[in-house]
Amino acid sequence: MHAKTDSEVTSLAASSPPRSPPRRPIYYVMSPANSHHDVDRVSLGGSSPGASPLHPHYHHPHHHRYASSPIHHSRESSTTRLSASLKYTSSSWRKLHNHTEGHHLGSAASSGCSDSDVEDDGPIPVRCYVAWFVLGFILLFTLFSLILWGASKSYKPDVFVKGVVFRSYDIHAGTDLTGVPTKMLSINSTVRIAFRNPATFFGVHVSSTPLEIYFSDLKIATGYMKEFYQSRKSGRTVAVAVGGSQVPLYGGGTGLRSRTEDGGAPAVVPLELSFTIRARAYVLGHLVRSKFYRHVRCSLSLREDRLDKPFRLAHACDYHD
């Protein structure tokens, strides 16, 4: 055995690597899957992140390495999670508050109130109540008017032609205004019309188209009924004079004859009476109005031997709206 010299001891000490100090225990904390992504990785191993090496057998992406005391790690982790939770709660409350406020202002604007009229926590201005009252009144009045209009349509006036009286009938030779010779007809009659208003809450203004009497397609007499007002639940009978004087017949009256013309038997002439009754009801002034129309067409016969006698038309007329 040889004793080591000082130079050999010095060379051995320089060639051998220095021993590392004993390692402190390393703590690994698993982060929850739903933790906020902005939590920073914290290293508590020493004075710098590179002071302690990574664990050689653990590489999970959600695990963070801490090389410090567990109390310090737990305190910082709790602070970070609490900060993230407060940020999320504040953001959610801000969105909910903005949504509620926008909905409230939108409802007020749709009612006629501007955004400046409605404050966050202040009372609703009087102008908003006025706008809502006006809108509600218009809607109720419109509904009420429609109900009145629909109810008035069920009260159609009753029209009935009671009869006609022929006063005179005459055919003779003559000339028209241009001097053309032809037969000339003169006729006078009176038509009696019964009208009744069955309505319980409105009166009607009644008028009529001209009353016309035709022989085939030839108009031989015309009459006009005066307009009148009929109050509710009442009726009347109207007499209308219908006649024609010196009506040229030309070729259309070849079938017409009279006893005064040829001295023969009394003539029987088939005729037709037609007109339309119009009634206007002002249910609620000029705002709600109803109109009724009644078309009348009657078939009748003129008997020359029954002049000045009433001719009843109970079953000789057709009525339609």
List the helices and strands and how they pair.
Blueprint: H1 6-15, E1 27-30, E2 63-66, H2 70-110, H3 126-152, E3 158-175, E4 181-197, E5 204-208, E6 211-215, E7 218-223, E8 228-230, E9 234-248, H4 259-262, E10 268-286, E11 288-303, E12 310-312, E13 317-320
Antiparallel strand pairs: 1-2, 3-4, 3-12, 4-9, 5-8, 5-10, 6-7, 6-10, 10-11, 11-13
What does this structure look like?
By secondary structure, the protein is α+β, with helices and mostly antiparallel strands. Helices cover 26% and strands 37% of the residues. It has helices at residues 6-15, 70-110, 126-152, 259-262, and strands spanning 27-30, 63-66, 158-175, 181-197, 204-208, 211-215, 218-223, 228-230, 234-248, 268-286, 288-303, 310-312, 317-320. Strands 5, 6, 7, 8, 10, 11 and 13 form a seven-stranded antiparallel β-sheet that branches. A four-stranded antiparallel β-sheet has the order 9-4-3-12. Strand 3 and strand 4 (181-197) form a beta hairpin. The longest helix is centred in the first third of the chain and has 41 residues, at 70-110. It is elongated, with a radius of gyration of 55 Å. Residues 1-18, 33-75 and 102-111 have low confidence and may be disordered.
